[in-house]
Amino acid sequence: MGHITSKSYLDLQKRLEKSPQGAPASESLFKILEILFTEKEAKLVSALPIKFFTAKKAAKIWKVEEKKAKEILNELSDKGILLDIKKGNEQEYILAPTMAGFFEFSIMRTDGKFDRKILSELFHQYINVEEDFVPRVLGLDPCIARTFIQEKTLQKKHESIILDYERASNVIKTASCITVGTCYCRHKMEHKGKACKMPQDVCLTFNNAAKSLSKHGIAKKITKKEAMKVLDRCVEHGLVQVGDNIQDHVGWICNCCGCCCEALLAYKKLGYNMKINSNFFAEINDEKCKNCGVCAKKCPVDAIDHKDLKKIPKISVENCIGCGVCTRFCPTKCMKMERRSETKFVPKDTFERFIVCAINEGKLQNLIFDNFSLWTNEVLRRFVGIIFKLPPAKQLLANKQLQSKFLATAFKSHMSDEYRKTMHEKAIKTRYDHPELKKKH
User: Fold this and answer.
1) pLDDT per residue over 48-76, tens digit each?
2) CB contact at 8 A, 24 and 133
3) 323: which of 90, 148, 189, 400 is 20 to 30 A away, CA to CA?
4) Are 36 and 102 in contact (CB under 8 A)?
5) Residue 366: how many CA atoms within 13 Å on its side-chain side?
6) Does the structure show a pLDDT above 60 at 418?
7) pLDDT (tens digit per residue) in 219-277
8) SS3 at position 393
């Protein structure tokens, strides 16, 4: 007889599906939800907005007193289901995403609230065996994750041009709060008997996420000096720094191995289609290379081919994630990191990434109309600003999802202005590119 799921969990799964990441229905997912949520909690959470909300808003939705709503919200935050963040004098809440979010938090905690062995087996089934969730969550555009280059592998010529947000050290330096917790990926694999010997106490979270995890005992608060020690230790082990794909207020950096890490395993499994690379790539100096093959062994994503031991290893620039691990371990120092000719798009913050992802996934209307009452003038200005920065085709896609007369008129005016500007620049360029006019100018 198949697994019987109550309506509360079915509604919760539908609520999770509204976000850009989504959560494809499956028997293993419903078993995970039944461990993490009581049936009552599932029913309540399924009615919550997608974006930030207050206890007052939740109380209104649930039709309970605000005091009771706060009690429920705090219990959910204790579980790591919600993140609670102080904004000015007001406490706001948001449902953590599945990844990186409450899936990981349930494994990170060590207080025995959840059976980590059973959860690990279910997560392995849902994420590593089944083929619906990972392509969706890690195939988002923009991707939720990106690689940080190991800074000490940079040549001097690149040290002055690497951007602040590309440095893991700068994330630590500028963080308002830092925590360290258990590595979800390796701990999950440990329960499956497949974990490597790399350290597990190395999962770093920052800023608002760190404040919430620290407050509820899910991760341990540490100093910036201690965080740098964690980073240096992981670099020495040859682990890759994969973190939050935003520029400001980065929420997390994982220290990943190629054998356990969800992102790196998915990158290889999905045919290297995920855009998780840094703005750098590895290059070999053939004349200096001694053909030892260390680089190929150390590469976490198998981007270096050394199957023919008689030939110099060959790097696939397209598949290289630009982490710098191979360069750091090269015994002959024949490898170097070069900057890619085109700097990849990294969203300014979580809000911008969420908006662009929602448009690309056809879910923008879920984000806007689900929580419209909390959109201040400032937030609306930011939203419209993000939309106007998109290519015209993406703007039309956003408008189609919202079916907004206001946006349609604004887009038409904006696109007309852009069109006139483009045609004017093109006319000037054509004029001065003409052979006869070139002689005069």
Assistant:
1) 998 889 999 999 999 999 999 999 999 99
2) yes
3) 189
4) yes
5) 22
6) no
7) 999 999 999 999 999 999 999 999 999 999 999 999 999 999 999 999 998 888 889 99
8) helix
3-state DSSP percent of the chain in helix, strand and coil, to 5:
50, 10, 35
Q: At residue 186, does pLDDT exceed 60?
A: yes
Fold (topology level) of 280-339: Alpha-Beta Plaits (3.30.70)
Compute and round to an integer the Cα radius of gyration of the chain. 24
CA distance 73 to 76: 5
Q: Which pLDDT score is estimated for 438? A: 44
The phi and psi torsions of 309 (rounded to 5 degrees) equal -65, -15
Under 8 Å between Cβ of 374 and 52: yes
Q: In which residue are the tokens 């993490």 written?
A: 36
Residues 77 and 283: their CA atoms lie apart, in Å, by 46
Query: What residue has token string 């919202």?
Result: 402
Phi and psi dihedrals of 281, rounded to 5? -145, 155
CA 133 – CA 124 distance, rounded (Å) = 11
Q: Is the peptide bond before 49 cis (omega within 30 degrees of 0)?
A: no
Contact yes or no for 260/185 (Cβ under 8 A) = yes
Tokens found for residue 288: 């200096």
How does strand 145-148 pair with strand 240-244? antiparallel
Range(s) for CATH 3.30.70.20 in the chain?
Answer: 280-339
* d(C-alpha 96, C-alpha 102), whole Å: 6
- For 12-61, the pLDDT digits (tens) are 999 999 988 899 999 999 999 999 999 999 999 999 998 889 999 999 99
Best CA proximity match to 61, nearest among 43, 42, 48: 48
CB-based contacts of 130: which residues, under 8 Å, 6+ apart? 26, 28
Helix (H, G, I), strand (E, B) or coil at 256: strand
In 3-state terms, what secondary structure has residue 50?
A: coil
